[in-house]
Design brief:
2 copies of one chain form a homodimer. Helices cover 34% and strands 24% of the residues of chain A. Chain A has 309 residues and is an alpha+beta fold. Chains A and B meet through strand 3, strand 4, helix 4, strand 7 and helix 7 of A and strand 3, strand 4, helix 4, strand 7 and helix 7 of B.
C-alpha cells in the first residue's frame, strides 16, 4: 500500500488518512445508512484534502477533519458519542504535532462540542498535555470553547443502541472512534483522535484515544498514527508508539510495522489503525469486519470505504 | 549497574527497586529531614524485600511498597500529595502486570486513600484499564476502598509549599512521585506508580504516571518500569515503552536502554526512571539533582539513597 512515493514530478507532496471507527457497521445495514457513511467520509476527506492541497498545515487538516466527524451524528465522537452506563456521554480525544512531539489530550469530559479543539488549545497553551473530567471542562469554559448541554449529545440512534445494550450486552461491536493523520507540504506530521468510547462503559472509563503512544502519536522522524478499536487492548500493547518504534529501531516501513502490529499483535477483531509516514505514504489496516476510512494524497489518490476499497 | 546476575548459587532470584521522586529534596535540607526520607525509604524497601524473599508476588510487593509511600506524608502521593492551583489534591496512579500486560490506572481522583489499590481493583476487575475523576471515585466507593476527606490530604508541609508556590512559582522543583518495580521468584515482573502530580497544577491535569507506556509499564519479556519527573515530557517521549522496546527491538540491556533514554533523550533535570528486567537486574537512573530511591535483591543488595549511593 505504498501510494504517493516517487511519482510526483516535483509537485509538493501531502497525504491524509482518516477513520470513522472499525467494525461498527453491520454488512447488512440498509443501503441508505451505508450511503450516509460514504457521503460523510467523503465530505470529511474533502475538507482535509483542500487544506493540504492549498498548503495548509497537517495540524489544521487533522483538527478540521475530526471536527467535522465530531459534529456528524453518524460517528461515535462529539455529537454522536455513545452513552455510558449511566446514560451520559463522556468524551476522550488527543492531538499531536510531529514537529516537536507537543500534544494535548482530554479524558472523560462532558459538554465540550469539539473535544479535538480543546486538545489543540491545551497543546498550544503548552503547560500540560493531558487533562481529565471536571478540570478539563473548566479549562474549556475558560478558553471560551463551545459547550453544549446533554440534549445536544442525545442522538436517537445512540440512545436506542444504549437501550438495546442494556437488554443484551454486546460491547464488542459498540465501539467506534474518529481520527485523522496527515503530512503537509512542509513534511510535518500530525495526528488527531476523538471518541465517545465504549457504549455502556462505566462512568469515568477512558480508552486509548487520549493516551499518547497508544491511540494517538505523531513524530516527524517516523509517522503519525490514530487508532480505533478495543481501547483497553490498544493501551496495554502501546500500539501507536510500537508502530513508530518498529520503524525507528528496526527500519521497517510504516506498512510493514502497522501490518505486524495489527495482524500479529492485536487479537482478532480488535480494531484498526491509520498512519502516514514522512514520505507521504498513507497506510490503513484493520483486523475487524470493516473500518470507516478514507485516504487522499497529492498524487490524486482519493478513496473512501467501509469494507474493501 | 548489573547486580544480581549469575551469582546466586541456585537460590531463587528476586529483585525490587523503588523511588520516592526525583529532584525534590534540596541538598541543603536539614539532616533531620534527610534522615526522615532515608528511614522511610528503608522501611518501604523492607516491606518489598520481605514479600519477595518469602516467595510473594511482584504485584503484591509493588502494591504494598507504594501503599506505604502513599501513607507516608513525606512523599508526593496519597496523603502527602501536593496541592493543585485550587488547593485540592488530585491523584494519579497505575499498576501493571508483566505476565499478561493487564493494567489498571486512575487519573485526577480525589478522596481515595490508596490510589494504587484502586488501580489493582480495576486491573483485576478486567473490564477497563484507565478511569478518571468522578467515575473513578464512584468506582472506589462501590469497591469499598477506603475514602478520606480533604483534611486527610491537607499536610502542613505541602500546604506551605503551595502557598510559597503561589507567591514565587518554581514548578520545576515541586514535583515528585512514588513507584516500585519488582521481579518475583517466578520471574514475573510488575510495576506501580502513584503521585499527586505537579504542585500548583491546573485542576484536572494528569501526568505520566497513569499513562501506560509513559510513566508505568511492565512486560515479562523485557522489563518493568516506573518513572518520576516532568510528566508532560515523559508522556510526549513515551519513556517507559521506549525503554522496553529498545530492549526488545535492539537487544539492548535494561541498563543501556534506560541510560540512553534518561541521559540522551530526556532534557536535563527532567527526572528519573527505575526498572527491573527478567534476569532480576534492578536499574535506576536520573538526570536531576537527586532521586529518593532504593534497590534490593536476592543476592543481598539492600541500598537506599537520595543522591550518590
Amino acid at each position: 500500500m505504498n501510494h504517493g512515493k516517487n511519482c510526483q514530478d516535483g509537485k509538493q507532496r501531502w497525504a491524509i488518512a482518516l477513520h470513522g471507527g472499525a467494525g461498527t457497521i453491520p454488512r447488512d445495514s440498509s443501503e441508505a445508512r451505508k450511503q450516509q457513511h460514504i457521503v460523510a467520509l467523503t465530505e470529511a476527506l474533502t475538507i482535509g484534502r483542500d487544506i493540504l492541497a492549498q498548503g495548509g498545515t497537517s495540524l489544521d487538516a487533522v483538527e478540521q477533519v475530526v471536527r467535522y466527524l465530531e459534529d456528524c451524528p453518524l460517528f461515535n465522537a462529539g455529537r454522536g458519542a455513545v452513552f455510558n452506563r449511566e446514560g451520559v456521554n463522556e468524551l476522550d480525544a488527543a492531538i499531536m504535532d510531529g514537529r516537536d512531539l507537543s500534544a494535548g489530550a482530554v479524558a472523560a469530559v462532558r459538554y465540550v462540542k469539539n473535544p479535538i479543539s480543546l486538545c489543540r488549545r491545551i497543546m498550544e497553551d503548552g503547560e500540560h498535555v493531558l487533562m481529565a473530567g471536571r478540570g478539563a471542562e473548566a479549562y474549556a469554559r475558560n478558553s471560551e470553547l463551545e459547550l453544549m448541554d446533554d440534549a445536544y449529545f442525545h442522538t436517537e440512534y445512540r440512545y436506542n443502541q444504549w437501550q438495546r445494550e442494556l437488554e443484551i450486552p454486546t460491547a464488542a461491536v459498540n465501539r467506534g472512534t474518529v481520527g485523522a493523520v496527515a503530512m503537509d507540504v512542509r513534511g510535518n506530521l500530525a495526528s488527531a483522535t476523538s471518541t465517545g468510547g465504549l457504549a455502556n462503559k462505566m462512568p469515568g472509563r477512558v480508552g486509548d484515544s487520549p493516551v499518547i503512544g497508544c491511540g494517538t502519536f505523531a513524530d516527524n522522524t517516523t509517522c503519525a498514527i490514530s487508532c480505533t478499536g478495543n481501547g483497553e487492548e490498544f493501551i496495554r500493547k502501546t500500539v501507536a508508539s510500537r508502530i513508530a518504534l518498529q520503524m525507528e529501531l528496526k527500519a521497517q516501513s510504516l506498512d510493514d510495522a502497522m501490518k505486524d502490529v495489527v495482524m500479529n499483535r492485536l487479537s482478532r477483531d480488535s480494531g484498526g489503525v491509520i498512519g502516514v509516514d514522512a514520505q507521504g505514504n498513507a497506510v490503513l489496516h484493520y483486523n475487524s469486519a470493516g473500518m470507516n476510512r478514507g485516504a487522499a494524497d497529492s498524487t490524486g489518490r482519493f478513496q473512501v470505504a467501509i469494507w474493501e476499497w
